[in-house]
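Q: I'm building a small set of examples for a reading group on sequence design. Run inverse folding on the following structure and report the sequence directly after it, with nothing in between.
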């Protein structure tokens, strides 16, 4: 998933959560205003309070859902980051091993060339002594 897309989605969800919290605050304020006086004696006020409480509960549930979505996005993003890090480590190990093998091969070739030179010199020396 593209990081920009993740950041965009995260910001949108955070904004939604902030909006929900603002609405919850408005509902709580309206409930406080309705409690002034004797609301238990007025059926209309009781009904309004029930509706506001139901709206508050519904919005709280929505906030919980958005929070869970946000947690899931963060977990997925973290796991993706860990997966990328593991892949990078594997590639780095392979590259390190390959580099090590290349160095060893160079050393072997150099030793081989040195051995050929030594052998050639011995052959030349032996050939000269045989004459």
């Amino acid at each position: 998933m593209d990081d920009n897309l993740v950041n965009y989605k995260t910001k949108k969800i955070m904004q939604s959560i902030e909006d929900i919290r603002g609405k919850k605050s408005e509902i709580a304020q309206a409930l406080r205003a309705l409690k002034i006086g004797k609301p238990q004696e007025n059926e209309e006020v009781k009904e309004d309070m029930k509706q506001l409480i139901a709206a508050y509960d519904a919005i709280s549930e929505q906030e919980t859902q958005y929070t869970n979505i946000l947690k899931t996005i963060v977990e997925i993003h973290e796991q993706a980051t860990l997966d990328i890090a593991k892949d990078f480590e594997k590639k780095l190990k392979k590259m390190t091993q390959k580099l090590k093998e290349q160095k060893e091969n160079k050393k072997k070739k150099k030793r081989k060339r040195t051995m050929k030179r030594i052998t050639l010199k011995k052959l030349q020396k032996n050939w000269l002594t045989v004459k």
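The longest helix spans residues 43-130.
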